[in-house]
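for the recovery benchmark. tokens below, seq after
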């Protein structure tokens, strides 16, 4: 039997390590193109469906998934930049895409609720703990949907948990609180909508200097290959409306919901390309990369699924000038080879040493990008 690259890649993501899989993984990683002075390596293999990333102060990386229903903990015990263990801490959850860390607890976003695992590091590092898997407590119920149901979560600078609540459709006028970014207190109280008119945000972060929220948003489908663009947005305060479903990319009125003018809504900070599937993003606040990368946005583009020619499947950087996004450029490319994609970047995470982690749900792996000091 012969295997295509994509088929073998999927098989290697689900099987234990073998010589053929190891050789294919090395060959694939060699195809990633980076700026001069940067290098990429495998931080963890055998992480099926790896998506959103969060890290505890102990350096344990927690990973959410979608269809797999698992949450993983990745442990680099000897701190050599490669994982020693991948521990599955939860199974059978409903698309536990979002993960966030706060005060010893891991928060996980399922389709229909936010749950919390207390003292989770102890379960990961203790043999006794692994014999008694942690139990989750329910923090808050969420609207149960079957479209854009993979929730992204992160704690903001004011210690509130932010939640992406995607619209339950390709394009529609969703009922409150969907099509928005909401926030709440760590105990689930004080739930409120922070930003509306957001079709599907699966990545956000706060500017390290201003504390303002920036987020990615996926544009609607079925208006052609090149319209509308996915967006990078800036929300300096609550109560702003970013256009969905009436206006896309700041200047395209929706053919079915065009009764309102685009001038009523917030303009995107940056158009980042139609169908690139802009997902996880982080401001770079490390010290390993050259100074010009400080406070740039690193963004994972998961890649198109219905475009006639595939786009995305890469990591880009966005350069800011004050509160304006003035340029974006490719940073890591090569997961897409022609029209075949062997990997799909989902999220990024800046490590304490300044390295950048990248999750890949197609290859079932986490990568580590470093720069020469």
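predicted aa per position
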């Amino acid at each position: 039997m012969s295997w295509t690259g994509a088929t073998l890649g999927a098989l290697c993501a689900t099987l234990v390590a073998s010589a053929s899989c190891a050789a294919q993984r090395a060959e694939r990683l060699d195809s990633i193109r980076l700026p001069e002075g940067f290098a990429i390596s495998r931080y963890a293999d055998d992480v099926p469906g790896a998506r959103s990333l969060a890290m505890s102060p102990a350096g344990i990386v927690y990973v959410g998934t979608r269809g797999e229903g698992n949450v993983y903990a990745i442990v680099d015990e000897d701190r050599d930049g490669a994982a020693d263990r991948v521990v599955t801490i939860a199974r059978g959850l409903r698309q536990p895409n979002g993960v966030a860390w706060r005060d010893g607890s891991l928060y996980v976003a399922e389709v229909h609720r936010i749950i919390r695992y207390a003292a989770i590091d102890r379960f990961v590092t203790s043999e006794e703990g692994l014999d008694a898997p942690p139990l989750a407590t329910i923090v808050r119920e969420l609207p149960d949907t079957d479209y854009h149901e993979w929730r992204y979560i992160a704690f903001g600078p004011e210690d509130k948990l932010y939640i992406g609540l995607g619209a339950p459709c390709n394009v529609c006028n969703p009922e409150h609180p969907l099509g928005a970014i909401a926030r709440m207190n760590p105990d689930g109280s004080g739930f409120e909508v922070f930003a509306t008119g957001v079709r599907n945000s699966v990545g956000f972060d706060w500017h390290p200097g201003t504390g303002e929220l920036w987020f990615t948003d996926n544009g609607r489908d079925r208006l052609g290959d090149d319209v509308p663009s996915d967006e990078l947005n800036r929300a300096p305060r609550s109560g702003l409306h970013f256009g969905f479903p009436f206006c896309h990319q700041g200047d395209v009125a929706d053919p079915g919901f065009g009764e309102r003018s685009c001038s009523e809504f917030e303009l995107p900070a940056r158009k980042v390309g139609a169908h690139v599937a802009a997902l996880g993003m982080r401001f770079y606040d490390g010290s390993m990369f050259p100074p010009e990368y400080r406070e740039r946005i690193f963004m994972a583009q998961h890649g198109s699924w219905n475009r006639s020619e595939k786009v995305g499947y890469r990591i880009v950087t966005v350069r800011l000038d004050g509160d304006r996004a003035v340029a974006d450029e490719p940073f890591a490319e090569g997961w897409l080879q022609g029209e075949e994609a062997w990997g799909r970047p989902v999220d990024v995470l800046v490590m304490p040493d300044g390295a950048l982690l990248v999750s890949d749900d197609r290859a079932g792996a986490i990568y580590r990008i470093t720069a020469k000091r």
